[in-house]
Amino acid sequence: MDVPFVRVARECGERARRELADADLIDDDYEIDVEDERLYVPVVDPDAVGDDLEVVFRAGNERDTQTTPADLLGFDPSYERLGRAVLLDEDDKERARTIADAVLESDLPVDTIVNKASKVKGETRIRDWDVLAGDDTEVVHREYGREFALDLATVYFSPRLATERHRVTEQVEADERAFDMFAGVGPFVIPVAGRGAECVGVDVNADAIEYLRDNARRNDVDDRVTAVCDDVRQVAAEYDGWADRIVMNLPHSADEFLDAAVTIAGDDCVIHYYDIQHEDDPFGPGERAIRAAAEPTYDVRVENRRTVRSYAPHELNVCLDVRLERVGE
């Protein structure tokens, strides 16, 4: 019997898969297939697939039944996947141990299981972890065809922002100069450099900068990536007027770095400004802060206001895509 599949070019496969997964449309009874540089993703309801995706009918290979942690536990545990690591957020250590044991017994491809042992803390935004399985906290994460090595114990990384990072990356032109003010291990820098842009990534965390350099090599973009370990406010003057695009993903305190961003901005520059604000006015504080820093030197135009995700009760993680155009003398 023929099965409905979404057919996309292989290089667009991860984006299509995520879109279908978010809509709960992937048919887990059949395998995802690759043929002639096309990816075929089985779907449960072809009529629910967006008009931007092509649906075809073809023979499908039935997936072997796999045992999940939920099958073993009798409930759906909450966890994140990062490469071959599973990240738990359980206050009850016994419950965390029970879930970890079920994950290990399941068919999930897992080498490491950790449980959050602290909140994000300090200037480098790292947290403590209890290692429940595996030898250490170093993992390799793959995202939209790119590979990122990182150590959960020494750097900050959020897999939840993959779609947002891809959205920004898709806007980049090959001849751009892009500046990431809080670069981490390179989840913005690496794919943007992969588009052909020249990139500078700055971070105060020396471990993150070492991983950024390693990840640039892993993804064959090291010739287009400059990694700097410093407070970006200390190096801004060295890149005066340099950037066509700036990423400011430090949502709790990005406003403290806007003067540096204005220094780095070229004559026509897009800033991706991330913020966390109350749902009553999630975009206003950021827009006002940007205007206060950039005007009257620049004309400021907000091109996009985007809610990235819910952060906490009544608080939203948002992004402002803002174009700065220098006013003529």
From TrEMBL:
GO cellular component, one term: cytoplasm
Gene3D superfamilies (alphabetical): 3.30.70.2580, Met-10+ protein-like domains (3.30.300.110), Vaccinia Virus protein VP39 (3.40.50.150)
UniProt keyword annotation of S-adenosyl-L-methionine present: yes
CDD domains from the UniProt entry: AdoMet_MTases
PROSITE patterns assigned to the protein according to its UniProt record, in alphabetical order: SAM_MT_TRM5_TYW2 (PS51684)
UniProt cross-references to Pfam families, sorted A to Z: TRM5-TYW2_MTfase, Trm5_N, TYW2_N_2
InterPro entries tied to this protein: MeTrfase_TRM5/TYW2 (IPR030382), SAM-dependent_MTases_sf (IPR029063), TRM5-TYW2-like_MTfase (IPR056743), TRM5/TYW2-like_N (IPR056744), Trm5a/b_N (IPR040601)
Highest taxon, organism lineage: Archaea
Molecular function in Gene Ontology: tRNA methyltransferase activity
Domain SAM-dependent methyltransferase TRM5/TYW2-type span(s) in chain numbering: 79-326
Keyword annotations: Cytoplasm, Methyltransferase, S-adenosyl-L-methionine, Transferase, tRNA processing
Protein's GO biological process: tRNA N1-guanine methylation
Keyword Transport: no
Signal sequence range: none
PANTHER family listed in its UniProt record: TRNA (GUANINE(37)-N1)-METHYLTRANSFERASE, TRNA METHYLTRANSFERASE
Protein name: Class I SAM-dependent methyltransferase family protein
